[in-house]
Amino acid sequence: MYKEVNVFEHSNVVLQRMKPGIFLTTKHENIINTMIIGWGGIMVIWGRPMFLVLVRESRATFNLIESSNEFTVSVPLENNLIDAIRICGTKSLREMDKFEYCNLTPITGRKIETPIIGEAELHYECKIIYKQPLNKEGIPPIIKDRYYGVNNDSYHTVYYGEIVDKYIYEKDEVHK
Q1: pTM value?
Q2: CA–CA distance from 42 to each of 24, 58, 82, 104 (Å)?
């Protein structure tokens, strides 16, 4: 069952759930991957509701999101999914199928091809309308040292995903 929500109705919860993390999922052709994000947020840019997410170039998700130009964000509300968050935040698609290992259910998005995580309740479907690789020379040294290290060449790209759908999803008997 789907319940429409206002784009900002749960924005405080989204920010609170950034730690321990929320699910960013993307799909290209028959490959689906989810990872955990702890940076990003909901805002309005160019008069449109956006979900900003950051993905490192070294992540398996990077090639998928670059090819698909879309993503979903799934936020656990009542179900904390802490074990799945821990695994999806530390393991790579290159190592395992995280959906299978964590027993996560991909449910086809309503407006995009990328699925949502069926076990989480709050979902945002996003189409990328702009992206910008971080300029490593512009990052303050204290941040660069902490998050990128001295010899790290894997910087983030910021994806501006226009929110094209947002809802609470509750499994019904058909999907259980």
Answers
A1: 0.93
A2: 14, 24, 22, 24
